[in-house]
Design brief:
- It is built from 11 helices and 4 strands, in the order H-H-E-E-H-H-H-H-E-H-H-E-H-H-H.
- With 221 residues, it is mainly alpha-helical.
- It has one domain.
- The two termini are 23 Å apart.
Amino acid sequence: MPYVEIKKSRWHEFAKRFIDVSAAIVILLIFLPIIIIVAIAIRLDSKGPVLADTPERVGKNGKLFKMYKFRSMIPNAHEILRRDPQFSVLYDQYKKGSYKLKNDPRITKVGRFIRKHSLDEVPQFINVLKGDMSIVGPRAYYPDELREQQKKYPETQDAVKVVLSVRPGITGYWQVSGRSEINFDKRIEMDADYVRKRSIFYDFMIIFLTPGAMLTGKGAR
C-alpha cells in the first residue's frame, strides 16, 4: 500500500527504537506471571490455541505482518465472521461500525475480561522486539479494513498514507484520549496527527496515560 513519509531526525529514530526494545524486554519479564495465568485461563475457558489466529495487519511502509495477541474469541473467529452465511448480518454491522462490534458473540468469557483491560495485547511486545511494531504508534489496521473504509471515507486517503509510514503501536493517541469508539475517519486523522507531531516526549506522555486507559477499559480495541 502507498505511504507518505514524515521524516524525523536519526536521533529520534534511534532513541525510539532503543526505548522500544528496552521497555519490551522489561515489560515481558514483569508480565511473565500474568502471561502464564492468562494462557492457562484461555485454555481452561475454551478449546483452541492460546494466541489468536488472526489475519495479517498492515505495518510500516505498507508491509504485512503477523500480530501476536492472546485469543479472546472462539477459534477461527475472523474466518467465521467473513465466510459463514449465519454471520452475514453481523459482518455488515462490523463493516458499518468501523470494524468494531459492541456486542460480539464470538468473544469468550476470559476474552471479554482480557480485552477490557488490554491484557490480550501483551504478546505484541514480541512484535516490538521483532521490529514490526513500536510501543507507541497508530493502530495496526487490517488490509480489508483500510480498503473498505477508504471507499466509505475517500477523504481519508492522504491520512492513511501518512499513518503507513511508521510502525504501528501497542498504544496510541486515540486509545488514551477516551475516544476509542469513534469512527474510522476520525480515528485515522488522529493517527495521522500523531505521526506528524510524534516525539519522544509525546510518546512518554501517551505511555503515562496508558495504564489508566487499561484499568478503565477505555484503551480496549
